[in-house]
Amino acid sequence: MPGYPARDTSAREVPGEMQAAAASSLDARRLGGVFSVLERVDRARDVVEFAEHTLEALGSVLGYRDTTFFAGPTYDGLFLDPSPLLEGRQRTLIREYRQRWDRHDVFARPRAAAQLHRVSAVSVDADDPATPADRAYRDWLGGHGIESLTAVHVAPGGAQALFGIFGPRGTVDPIDLAVLRLLGRQLDAIARHLPGRAAAEPPAVALPPRLAQTAELVSGGLTNAVIARTMGVTEDTVKKYVSKLLARTGTRNRTELALVLQRGR
Description:
Helix 10 (224-231) crosses helix 11. The chain contains twelve helices and five strands. Strand 4 (148-154) and strand 5 form a beta hairpin. By secondary structure, it is an alpha+beta fold. 43% of the residues are buried. A five-stranded antiparallel sheet has the order 2-1-5-4-3, with helices on both faces.
């Protein structure tokens, strides 16, 4: 909820000349903002604190109030994050996003994913061209007053994650995007070395067979419903297994659990 030129309708990529001009236009105030965000985030002891500190700094330092953090063991899986961090209006949209739009997110498109891995941040605005599928998703957000979508990619502890920034048309202009790309590269460097949550031992060690199977499926980013069908049990049983895994690993939600399980492989 987690630009391209006109030939690509999934996201807008600032042309190379504009990128260079934007990057060279970063004044001391904007660069100071980047350093201020990094100073706050650098205190994080794990991925959860990293995400919380970053969202707080995006708001208090850079002025972005409607933000998200989605994470998962794979890029495709992060859009199914069962416990994303949400700020501002995103809190009220998450249920409908889950029910209809998580697989249609504009940043889930292969071209957008490739660009995010290359340049760290991608921005989509209301005036950008869109495919019919992307237009439906963007129209839904537009109906809630959100016409600007920006994602910043990081890879915490070998997993995949996106910070989302949302707002009215023009929330992120070319210079803002240059700032976010610079910031995104530095955030990624910090995140790559952070644990999901400290665990006493690798969670897959000495687990009963059904818990071990559940752990493997959770680490793959699957939902409770899919895990239940795969294991031939009810969703309530899966919830009990997940609760036991949370207790054993000292994690607070499925996002932390998936990160710890991925690291423990």
